[in-house]
Amino acid sequence: MELGKKHKDINGFIFINLVRLMFAFLVGLLLLIIGIIAVNGYPVMSLDFLISSPANNMTEGGIGPAIFGTIAVTFFMVLLAVPLGVSAAIFLSEYAKESIYTKIIRTSINNLAGVPSIVFGLFGLGFFVLFIGKNLDEVLQTGLLFGQPALLWAAATLAVLVLPIVIVSTLEALNSVPKSHRDAAIGLGATKWQTIRDIVFPQAKPGILTGTILAISRGVGETAPILFLGCAFFLPNLPVADLCIGDYCIPMINPTEQFMYLAYHIFILSTQSANPTKTLPLQYGSTLVLILLTILLNITAIIFRYRFRKALGRN
Amino acid sequence: MTENILPRHQFEVSPENSHYSKKIVRSARIKETLIKSYFAAAGTAALIFIILIFIFLFKEGINAFNNIGLSDFIYGTRTMEDGTVKTVYEWYPTSENARYSLLPLLLGTLLTAIPATLISTVLGVAAGIYLSEIAHPKAKEFLKPVLELFAAIPTVVLGFIMLVIGATFFQDLLHPANRLNAFVASVGLTLVIIPVIASLTEDALRSIPMDLRNAAYGLGATKWQTISKVILPAAFSGVSASIILGFGRAIGETMIVLMASGNAANFTMEIFRSARTMTATIAAEMGEVSQGSDHYYALFFIGVVLFVITFFLNLIAEMIISKMRKKNTF
Questions:
Q1: Separation of alpha carbons A54 and A47, rounded Å
Q2: What is the pTM of this model?
Q3: What distance in Å separates the CA atoms of residue A123 and residue B228, rounded to the nearest whole number?
Q4: Could you report the per-residue pLDDT of B58-82, keeping only the tens digit for each?
Q5: Residue in A181, A114, A129 with CA at minimum distance from that of residue B291
Q6: A chain contacts of residue B145, beta-carbon cutoff 8 Å
Q7: Which of A136-140, A291-295, B304-308 comes out lowest in average pLDDT?
Q8: Which of A115, A130, A165, A298 to mutate to test the interface with B (most CBs of B within 10 A)?
Q9: A313 falls in which pLDDT band (50, 70, 90)?
């Protein structure tokens, strides 16, 4: 009997272990990729590499301006995408009743997530730079200030790109707030807005934060959408301008300037390098920084979500 | 008794009081309506952006139709050295006699996307089966985030790895005609698509009711028989949706093919030759093209083609998934 059962299962034994093997292969591949980058990138890693400018026709120096540009773009991207995405999710979860209309919106969200990233680049050029920027210049009489590729338009384009991520994670967070909490608030005489502001939103905050972190991770890694939106090969100066009120001047990010971007920097170094053997260590170094950044962001998001779900499960 | 607890006068409606409270109610109602309309406006953001993307791609792309013409997007003519005129399928927008055939680009896209989808289907579905059916729940809790990390690697990093390591590896192994070719690019693409297929397959398998598994086990089926004869057929639509979405991602991916495919617009079916995809063409040429030229509009037209293809692939996949959800909720 025992023997017969085992004999019957020999196909299963082979296939199940084949599936296990394939999964192990994938995990191994991931570790191999990260390992190769870590081993080759580690030697160039230093504080100086992280803050100094590229030098000597990009064959020496560091990635300081690229990191600064990445942070600046991401900052504006979050500023644009998160309020809009969270509001959209609040509408879908709290206000809208299920109808054809909400179905169309949900389909749009899924479709927006599937639009190729290079198409976002074309859209950013056509809509933000040539339509909004050019018209802003005409209305404000600013000559050619907004109507050219710049940091602000790159951030706006990335904001549209990460919008589905923010909406979907916020929706998940809002849906996990028990309905009884809303009923209790309404029963105590709170208005709909008071309920959302004081009861639902605070509980959904960790979930929204998770979505924001994932959006940052995605934005930091994107290259194709910003290729023709003001991303520069090399800039001698940071996109910073002094903002003066009277005599007091503080340096601020200037969103109408061009910028350097870490992901784009890797692309440029590895495809258009003047001296590939000399820049290879720099390429590995930049890649290590980028991959560490995305992995850390994602692990933070995963831990956040895990704890969020666990806390809700306990309630 | 309870009436004494609260001061009664608060509940009495005197004429001026009533006016006051009505005012409060009215202003509160106006405030609520304003807030609601703000959220309703924000709620349409995704829809509006989808429409805007279509309008602004089309607005520029339509000029390509007027200036270049539909037939020129399929074939062009070239005068050979001996004076004969030949029909050619070439993408050569910077030449004096510019040729705008999209066929080599479409072929390049398919030549990288189809092998990538085939490889990813095997590995991705296997990974989905492993996570949903085979892995220990504790192991799964740890391994699913690993898959998410895989999906989070920036594509420019994968392109870089394929460029410096993958290409050399396959050159030594297979001795291809070009060091950078469609095959190297498609291997790079699999790294992007496998996590997509794996996580959606896992979702589809998990949505199959437990009863089905228990019934199969009750009939004496082994674990593998249950997976292959019951679970996979039941989840067929969900798994195929995941493959369609993976294919859509493969068509739309830019950085990996830009860096690893060699970027020569060959009109060929040979997978070990350099190829150029639609996405890579836009990425490589948009920066250098002058605004308002035929070439510029042609690139936007490629964008329209890409958008339409991926839009419909997404729509089909989503219809399959929503149908599946309806079927599986009892």
A1: 14
A2: 0.89
A3: 44
A4: 988 888 888 777 777 777 777 667 7
A5: A129
A6: 299, 302
A7: A136-140
A8: A115
A9: low
Domain count, chain B: 2
Contact B43, B57 (CB under 8 A): no
ipTM, two decimals, is: 0.89
- A–B CB contacts, 8 A cutoff, strictly below: 255
The neighbour count for residue A289, using CB atoms within 10 Å, is 24
Amino acid at B200: L
Residues with Cβ within 8 Å of B65's Cβ and at least 6 positions away in sequence, in order, are: B301
How close B29 comes to chain A (CA, Å)? 9
Chain A segment 265-294 residues within 8 A of B by beta carbon are: 266-267, 270-271, 280, 283, 287, 290-291, 294
Q: Are residues B179 and B311 in the same domain?
A: yes
Inter-chain touch B157–A37, beta carbons under 8 Å: yes
Q: Per the CB < 8 Å rule, is B286 touching A25?
A: no
Please state, in angstroms and rounded to a whole number, the distance separating the CA atoms of residues A282 and B8.
79
Domain ranges, residue B22: 2-43
Using CB atoms, which residue from B49, B223, B254 is nearest to A116? B254
Residue from A15, A36, A37, A111 whose CB has the most chain B CBs within 10 Å, to mutate: A111
**B chain contacts of residue A112, beta-carbon cutoff 8 Å:** 46, 49-50
User: Cβ distance A285 to A41 under 8 Å?
Assistant: yes
Helix (H) or strand (E) holding B160: helix B155-161
Sort out which chain A residues have CB atoms less than 8 A from B28's CB and list them. Answer: 191
In angstroms, the CA B303 to CA A168 distance is: 26
Domain limits, chain A: 45-314
State in words which class domain A45-314 has: mainly alpha
Cα(B264)–Cα(A151) distance, integer angstroms: 32
3-state class percentages of chain A: helix first, strand second, coil last, to nearest 5:
75, 5, 20
